[in-house]
Structures are given as C-alpha cells and as structure tokens.
Prior knowledge:
WD repeats lie at residues 15-48, 58-99, 182-219. The chain is mainly beta. It has two domains: 22-95 and 179-214, Methylamine Dehydrogenase, Chain H, CATH 2.130.10.10; 96-176, Zinc/RING finger domain, C3HC4 (zinc finger) (Herpes Virus-1), CATH 3.30.40. Helix content is 6%, strand content 41%. The chain has helices at 118-124, 165-171; strands at 2-5, 8-11, 22-28, 33-38, 43-47, 54-58, 65-71, 76-81, 85-90, 132-133, 140-141, 148-152, 157-163, 180-184, 189-195, 200-205, 210-214. A four-stranded antiparallel beta sheet has the order 3-4-5-6, with no helix packed on it. Strands 7-8-9-14 form a four-stranded antiparallel beta sheet, with no helix packed on it. It has a three-stranded antiparallel beta sheet with strand order 15-16-17, with no helix packed on it.
Amino acid sequence: MIKCEPTGLKEITKLKGHTGSVRSLEWDSAQQRLFSGSYDQSIIVWDIGGQQGTAYELQGHRNRVSALCYAPMKRVLISSGEDAVIVFWDMAAQRKETPEWVESDLCQLCRRPFFWNLRAMVETHTIGIRQHHCRACGRAVCDTCSQTTIVIPKLGFEFPVRVCGPCHGLLKGQDLTSLATFHDAKHSIGFMNLDEQQKRLLTVGHDRVIKLWDVSQLL
C-alpha cells in the first residue's frame, strides 16, 4: 500500500498472501476493505480499516480470477475469471479468518512421522507419510486423518475441501449454507464493469465478445 504525500509516494505496508499474480483490485470505502483477485484462483479480503491485518479468503473459482466489481449499496462482491463463471459474494455475512497452516514433523493427530522426518522414521521403524493440512483448523495431518471433505462457506470455501476428522465432526452440525451464488457466463472473462444503480453488469471476454447483463434479481 502506498500513501500519496506532497513530497511524493510513501510505502505504508506490503500485503502478502497470494501465490499467483494479482490481476484485479476493488475497494470497499465504507468497511475499509480491499479485495484482490489472483491467478491462484483465490480472492483475499484485506480488512484495512477495521481489524487491521485480518484477511479472509474466498475460494469459488476453478481457474484464474481476472476481474472484480463491488456493489457497496448491497455489499456484494462480484468476481469472474477464466472458468467462465460469475460469482456473487455476500459480503454482509459473518465470515471467519482463514487459519494459518501449522508446520510439523509429525501428524498432529496420530503422531506418525512425515516422510522428511528421517530420525522419527528410524526410531519408530515406520515409513514416512505425506503431509496435508486441515482447511478448518490448519493442523498438519496425514491422509488417514483427513479423508473427508466438506464446504466451509464462513471460511470462504464454497467447494468441498480437505478437513481433519475432528473438524469434520464439528462442521457437520453447523449451518453450511452457501454465501455465494454462481452463474454461467458462457465465456472466459477478462474485464468487468458494474453500474449498480442501473443493475447492469458489463463483461468483456477473451473470445472478443462484450456482454451486458441484467443483474436486478441479484442486487
């Protein structure tokens, strides 16, 4: 982030979280939140003005995210990308911060060593196993301890993701209603523009086609 001063530009901070190129940005001036869409197929919501440092992930695309639009009156974020899908995210909903992944040499549930932990493998006379991470709690777990998948809308996971056994048991009893709606754009989108008052969404595709959408039923 950069601050404009009379003497020039001053760097305030760096936001790191994406693993691919950031291709689109949107700003929520009321809630002081920055939305970033990336080629890593994810969207990150950076809470700049409220709980500073808090970041929420939105995982609803299966290909690169290339365009974002925000409707402040309805508090809806619109995303699109190369998967030819337009997603409407309810940003008024209560969401939770994505947990950080824990690094460990052993499965944090069954205590079996991961394949790089040679010392533990020799001491226990076992073959090392592959490491996974529970998307709900961030624990480092093995495949046996994380064989289930589930959607976690409050964490931004609209598709089923890997979770550990204990978290799956807890999540099954919670409200897992989707906090987004998905719509087939029928072309890979490179650019979008929204007129919230007129309820019109403009998309420009990589197929050289421009489409104008009536989104009055969605906003």
